[in-house]
């Protein structure tokens, strides 16, 4: 399954992002965040490192680009989201709470994303079982959702849906309605996989970028060290795990799958594992 292997660190890879591009030719820039709190910018074709970023006194756990790759957001142990200019690699602003009604995160953040339909919205999640939603223009938190226990790169959005994967023994996969700020669907991995009672604690999830019209997504985690790709019909009822089509499933990757990111222009995607490596693979239908 693996078409390229890049050893990036002795620490687990906690977040991965391909840099978006607006031209006709991709630059093949892939970023990795490792558990020692550092972001590396890689040329994925050659495996060469282009740039590294460390925040003084704050181990970074996750990052994400906006839709044109001009900005990126980071988050980690200090419980706040920071916004950077990508060209200059300079800090623009720090997202903070401006009211007692939206206090923000009370523990470290493990996932941050730009809303795919609006660069003015950021969403983050972590150990405190909450999703915080930010308005980039206001530089502040505007709403929140309670629920998922995020321990890795485990938030994504598509349209008015937020996908999350929790480090939990059951009901790990949740889909929220962004307009209502409520859970719409919850799925138990063990029931999808075929009744395996051991379960798998999930670290990462993402909608497939090459299927913009569908709700196909991938998840990865520990316990079984899985990577799986699933199709979820958005019209199905809340508890119908039987309606989920398991397109691809790999067990026992060797180390936990902590992060993944689909390419923008192909069926390639990158996987970050506990061995401190990036595996670049190609999605194949069953």
- Strand order in the sheet with the most strands: 1-24-23-22
Structural class: mainly beta
Number of helical elements: 1
Largest sheet: 4 strands, antiparallel
Please tell me about this protein's structure.
- This protein is mainly beta.
- The chain has a single domain, classed as Methylamine Dehydrogenase, Chain H, CATH 2.130.10.
- The protein is built from one helix and 24 strands.
- The protein has a four-stranded antiparallel sheet, with no helix packed on it. A four-stranded antiparallel sheet has the order 2-3-4-5, with no helix packed on it.
- The radius of gyration is 17 Å and the shape is globular.
- It starts with a strand and ends with a strand.
- The mean pLDDT is 86.
Topology:
Blueprint: E1 2-7, E2 13-18, E3 29-34, E4 38-43, E5 48-54, E6 60-65, E7 71-76, E8 81-85, E9 90-95, E10 109-115, E11 118-126, E12 130-135, E13 140-146, E14 155-158, E15 161-165, E16 173-177, E17 182-187, H1 189-193, E18 202-207, E19 216-221, E20 227-231, E21 245-250, E22 257-262, E23 268-273, E24 277-282
Antiparallel strand pairs: 1-24, 2-3, 3-4, 4-5, 6-7, 7-8, 8-9, 10-11, 11-12, 12-13, 14-15, 15-16, 16-17, 18-19, 19-20, 20-21, 22-23, 23-24
């Amino acid at each position: 399954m693996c078409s390229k292997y890049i050893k990036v660190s002795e620490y687990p890879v906690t977040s991965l992002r391909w840099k978006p591009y607006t031209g006709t030719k991709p630059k093949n820039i892939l970023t990795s965040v490792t558990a020692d709190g550092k972001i590396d910018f890689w040329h994925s074709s050659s495996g060469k490192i282009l740039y590294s970023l460390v925040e003084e006194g704050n181990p970074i756990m996750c990052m994400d680009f906006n839709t044109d790759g001009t900005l990126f957001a980071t988050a980690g142990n200090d419980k706040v989201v920071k916004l950077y200019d990508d060209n200059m690699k300079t800090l623009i602003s720090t997202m903070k709470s401006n009211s007692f009604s939206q206090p923000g995160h009370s523990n470290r953040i493990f996932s941050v994303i730009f809303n795919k339909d609006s660069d003015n919205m950021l969403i983050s999640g972590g150990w405190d079982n909450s999703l915080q939603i930010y308005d980039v223009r206001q530089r502040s938190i505007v709403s929140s959702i309670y629920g998922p226990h995020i321990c890795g790169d485990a938030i994504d959005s598509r349209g008015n849906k937020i996908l999350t994967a929790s480090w939990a023994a059951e009901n790990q996969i949740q889909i929220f309605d962004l307009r209502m700020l409520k859970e719409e669907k919850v799925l138990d991995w063990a029931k999808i996989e075929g009744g395996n009672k051991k379960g798998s604690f999930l670290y990462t999830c993402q909608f497939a970028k090459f299927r913009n019209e569908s709700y196909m997504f991938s998840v990865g985690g520990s316990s079984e060290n899985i990577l799986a790709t699933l199709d979820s019909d958005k019209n199905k009822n809340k508890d119908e795990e039987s309606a989920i089509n398991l397109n691809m499933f790999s067990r026992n990757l060797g180390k936990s799958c902590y992060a993944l990111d689909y390419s923008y222009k192909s069926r390639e995607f990158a996987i970050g594992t506990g061995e401190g490596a990036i595996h670049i693979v190609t999605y194949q239908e069953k």
